[in-house]
User: What shape does this take?
Amino acid sequence: MPRLQPRFTVKSLRTPLFAAALFASAAGLSVSPAFAQATPTPASPVTSQAKAHHREMGRMMPGQLVDGRIAFLKTELKITPAQEPQWQQVAAAMRQNANALDQQIATARQQHADMDAIQRLTMRSEFAKLRAENDARLLTALRPLYASLSPQQQQMANALIGPHHGWHRDVHHRA
Assistant: This one.
């Protein structure tokens, strides 16, 4: 009768056993600090300041950010003196858009707490209309500038207003 070969040898079990032991020790190390720290530590002053700064930045209005965005885009696009008149039209449209959005946001913040579902949906619809109006205004100003840009400048503009970028701060409002 032929001799049966064992299915598992010490050599074939060594790697899985080592992996299991390593996993168990790592899991034990990662769990033990949670048990050791029974009371939460107070936030450091730096952490508290960073959180406060983040909240403050989140409350900034588009009108407070638009001049920085305009300067950034002008630098990145390397606007020439010959392109300056068209650029000024784009900058003016961006400022108008920011001001219109500032007004809409201020209204929404004042009314938000007292709104019912219909009013919130209406507010969202008003934001969508405003976004469409702002996009149309910017498009009207951008067409002549874009036509005057060199191929390299157009490539940069395409990158700056690609699917994950915009000419303005992307503000999402949940009404």
Summary: The helical segments are 10-36, 45-58, 62-77, 84-111, 117-148, 151-160. The longest helix spans residues 117-148. The two ends are 80 Å apart (CA to CA).
